[in-house]
Amino acid sequence: MESGGRLLNSAMMANSFVVSGNSKGVDAGAPKARVKAVADIVRTEDHITLDHMKSLMAVFVEHDNVLSTAQFTEALGEIVEKGPDFQKRIDILVKKMDINNNGFIEWDEFCTHFMSDLAEKHSLQTERQVPLLVCPHLFDSAHRGMLTSIRSSSNPARIITASEEGTIVFWSMKMQPQRILKVDSEALQKKAAVSDIEIMPNAYRVVVATTNRDLSFYELATGQVRNIVVGLHDMITSLHYYSVNNNTGYLLCGDLGGNIFAFKFTQCNKQLFSANASWSDGITVNMKQMPMDSEASPTAIIQIKGHNASIDEVDRSVKQVAFAPFLDAFISCVPVSRASLIVRPLKKLSGGQEFSINRGVSTFDFSEQHNLIATGGPDCILRL
Fold it and tell me: Which residues contact 317 (CB under 8 A, 6 or more apart)?
């Protein structure tokens, strides 16, 4: 696509995917300004060159620098190749230019529009990074509520999305729905919402946290509920699963009160929760009766010193929790000024490091290669 210069070079096209529009493409024809109906992102003004501007200026001079909509459309149609939706795009362009809404295009309005457009293009060209030149594509989904979590799995490569009304959708890497899982209505009593989800790859489970203060474990293959953990102290706001090997894994949980604990599983490939234990009936698991970090039990709870935020804080919920293997510790953050970010060994009840940041931390990420932790929060400052 050319107009004095190339919009997308071959390298950019090679590393992109095509988002098709609603109309069929037209033959490119001669290398001149044209309107194409392939995608909605193509604008008429993007294909008007300096020579076209001179031709339009002569038309404006002939009509005392004021053109009616019909005159402007006719003048533009003589220099720009018409596409199937030419009139639609001209109507959009006229609405942008007609600032005083009098139904006429004045020369000053015409120049003002193109000067601001050129300034925007210049700003994009001088940016250090290549701007996004393609509008985001909207995908139809089964979600009917606010999205609360997005996860990904590597084997097979999938993107998993969850919405608060209890719909979980498994997508291919081409954003084609592969499976839709509806969280059992029994697990969402009292019109509870999904607060977070996590994938347990070595156990072939997806765990769902709800505002009912419970955790539901579903089979990835069938979507059948296998276990429901009840008796939680507070609603879970953040989940993270760390797989040690094929049999062992830790499910980290952060809740609404800033508390942190973990489930330790040592028989992931067999059964997560024992059906013969006193604290389980095979489906429902009572967390209050589960063993605390017991080596004899295949499943146990590890209680960890949390953020201990004041009850006067409006929001002291754990926003994110994750395990950092290179530190052999977990990282957690809350949006409060005291102990905003903690880095604590998983197998110790206390210890580690605490960082206090004004207004707290909302999100973080870490790099093993550079031995860095990056944080962001309400103060709009990125810290390393």
Answer: 237, 254, 255, 256, 257, 258, 334, 335
